[in-house]
Amino acid sequence: MRSVRARTALGATLVVALALVVAGVALLAVLRGNLVNQAELQAEVSARSVASQVAGGTPFGRLDLPDDTEEHPVQVVDGAGRVVAVSDDIEAISGTGSSGTRAVPGGGEPGAGEVSEEADHSTGEVTVDGERATYRFAAVRADGPRGEVTVYAGAPLATEEATVAGVRDAMIAAMALLLVVVAGVTWLVTRRALKPVEGIRAEMAAITASADLSRRVPEPGTRDEVARLARTTNETLAALEASVERQRRFVADASHELRSPIASLRTQLEVGAAHPELLDVPGAVADTVRLQQLAADLLLLARLDAGERAGRGPVDLAALAREEVAQRAAGDRVPVRVDAESAAEGPGAAVVDGSRGQLARVLGNLLDNARRHAEADVVVEVRRAGRHVVLTVADDGAGVPEPERERIFERFVRLDDARSRDEGGAGLGLAIARDVAVRHGGTLTAGAAPSGGALFTLRLPALDQP
């Protein structure tokens, strides 16, 4: 079955049917047991009545046996298994101590005897006037003048069989009707419950066909699982729409950024080909380097977006900061001070788990950004703050306006659109830095430095060394 409604209705019907069968069998067993107990009680009353006569010394031939043989057949058997008394009209009997239907002549002497307190029960058949029926027999022992005898008295089970059969038939009919009702109700309830799901499916199919990610699936007003599914689906569509839009914008911006250095380089090469003496070799090299850096940035962003994880290990941010500053010290117009030794609070205090190459890229991007905007001073500080290692890069430049402190981490964003691209870059450095920080379980934020410039704070989980 491919329909959820059909499978649900069938499953519910089977479960209810199983429960009804178990309950019905138990009910019939209890009913049958009660009716059999009643028959045993009636049979035992008749048997004790006759046993009392035997114990009182009444001769076997004079025993007062029940007149209604069909209702209460009686058979008295002595210790040798011989029938000494039996009800009239019994043609055949089974389930008692003897199958005899005729009494052996005998008598008894007046005297006192005993009747057993216990009674045994058995089931047998009795044929009276050509009609055979099933009976429940009670066997009571009596000690009379002629020795011990056993009195068998029966009670018919026809009432029990008829009652059980009637109840069984009524239960089967009611069960069939109930199962039909259960199946129908389950089908209708499931259909109503799954109607919003069908609406979600239809809308998703329409979105897939139209490729319009701005559309949303209908959200039911309930607070059940279907409503949560609709909300989650819409959240997924919104994230997918944002991702696709971001990818389109990224491709457009990348194409725009690549076009400028490629066009400049081509122009210089064409001029050089026509007029070798006019070839600007340093300019061509600079454009090539810029193009190479841009391609590297785009490749790193693509890898980050794809979820690629670089090799990770212990990285000492204090040592890394000193190394990066030392490598970039030559030719800097602005000096960079590193305060990482005293703030690291001992060896290993500033160690994090991460990719040394990617974290070096983050620090390098922050340093490049600070150098471009600083007036006379850049300060790098590394310190331990609880379970985190905090690295800050501060400059004394104009700073970042508070409304723009989040936007500067977007890709291809430059606050000063009028400045030259050679000085300002492509606007990917801070975006790369934040992506790397997030993928290392940390954060990168922008704020105001004490000197009035920009303050970038990188916070990463510390790796406690054993």
What would you note in describing this structure?
There is one protein chain. By secondary structure, the chain is of the alpha+beta class. The chain folds into three domains: 9-162; 225-305, Orthogonal Bundle (Helix Hairpins), CATH 1.10.287; 313-461, Histidine kinase-like ATPase, C-terminal domain (Heat Shock Protein 90). The chain is built from eight helices and 13 strands. The strands form three sheets. The protein has a six-stranded antiparallel sheet. Strands 8-10-11-13-12 form a five-stranded mixed sheet. Strands 7-9 form a two-stranded antiparallel ribbon. A hairpin with a 2-residue loop joins strand 10 (378-385) and strand 11. Helix 1 (4-55) packs antiparallel against helix 2 (158-210) and helix 6 packs antiparallel against helix 8 (429-439).
Can you tag this structure with a few keywords?
alpha+beta, 13 strands, Heat Shock Protein 90, Helix Hairpins, five-stranded mixed β-sheet, 466 residues, 3 domains
Detail the poorly predicted runs: 417-423
- Structural class comes to alpha+beta
**Proportion in β-strands:** 15-25%
What characteristic shape results from the CA principal axes?
Answer: rod-shaped
Radius of gyration from the CA trace? 51 Å
What is the helical fraction, as a range of percent? 40-55%
Overall mean pLDDT stands at 83
Strand order of the largest sheet: 2-1-6-5-4-3
Largest pleated sheet: 6 strands, antiparallel
Number of domains: 3
Number of helices: 8
Q: Oligomerization state of this entry?
A: single chain
First and last CA, distance: 59 Å
**Secondary-structure element order, N to C:** HEEEEEEHHHEHEEHEEHHEE
- Counting DSSP E segments of at least 2 residues, the number of strands comes to 13
